[in-house]
Amino acid sequence: MDRVIRTENAYMNLMTPVQDEISPYSAEYPVELLSNGLKLKLAQAENVVINIFKEVAKASPMVAQVREASKKGYKYVVDATEGTLEAIESGKIKLTTENSGKMYAQIREANGHYGSKLPIKKDVFAKGIDPIQMANALQMKALQDQVQHIANQIAVIDHSVREVIQGQQNDRIALYYSGLTLYLEARNVNDPEMKKALTAQSLRALSEARFQLGLSMQSDIKYLAEGEFKIGKGKSVGLIDIRINSINQSFAFIHQATMLRAGIYCNEGELAAMSTVLNEYSYFIEVTVAKNAGLLAQCDKTDTGTEKGVWKSRAKLKLDVSEFNKRLNAPDKTIYLGVSKENE
Amino acid sequence: MGKIKGCGNESCETHKKKITYKESEAFCSKCGSLLVYVCKDCYTQLSDDTEKYCVRCLAKHEDRKDKAKKVAAGAGGGALAVGGIILTYGKKALDMAKKIKG
To answer: Do both A80 and A194 map to the same domain?
Structure first.
């Protein structure tokens, strides 16, 4: 529980305290928003785990149970009828999550298959503990290493795009700023409905910006891949540079828009949506960047073409985000196996 | 043909000094890393052995060739123009000389 994750990355360490909010118009804002959101979620997970441990220790008179709880640090209680409880006591329980995000407990039968789904209700075990919150917190805790790893990867890309951001303007970038401004407004609105509506609009603008820039980037890559710059006799290097600048600009704002969307979802407690955004980003990198990393490295005068070069390091993001997403959205999430007896 | 290799290990001195190897060699003599194809001009790592230059350097070479062609074409055009002028004015000058003599 008190494990310290060590990281060499100085840009985004999730073990450091939450930073004071920087200017929203700074190039670092989106990744800071995501980083702070992740830090808060991890801190909440830590608190929830500690609270659960305390409640379990207080509410379980049996020595064996306390020892069990101490070993695990947490425990769940499933809301069930008398008959079901007997079945639970004799078997093992696992938590499953449907695609909708709703959680259920399931009984493992003698043949090893899982039986009917039992809904998990709030406040079933002890006062002050929300099983859903517990499950999310434990999930977040289990994914801490993955989260930190992703944060480190994002930081590598983020560092390389910040220089590109300054002073760039076009209509698609305007959409990004529109999304950013709408989110800032949403944060300062008191009416919950209006807040939701503004946040949704902000996410939509950011999504549109990301996809328009994605298409623009793909078109620029196609131009380079098909050697269309050769048409400009004596000016092809200039044409390559124009396209590479455009690609770098698009990529920088795609990254910013993605980080901002992930940050918004994370701060709203929508971790599955955050993971979907990161997964989509991962797919985009795989299809658009990784496949063309060699070509882009050859066209970009700032790149060396090595594994640590600009484009090949960007291309590497795919693997670990996919792994994180797989773990977060795994349909079979067995979080605990022990069964409590205090419901008797 | 004429393709060159370099060390892909960024921390190796050979890479930092952009030292090149012949295509027939396989490992870096300094760090032992597998050699990779690099651009003959800028040392950018190439993904395969089909080209001697990276896309940007190749375009640079093509640009130079195109510019040289343009200059040559310009020079050729200039020579023709000068020849034309000489013919026109030379004829007039000859006529003038004949008049003066006559």
So the answer is: no
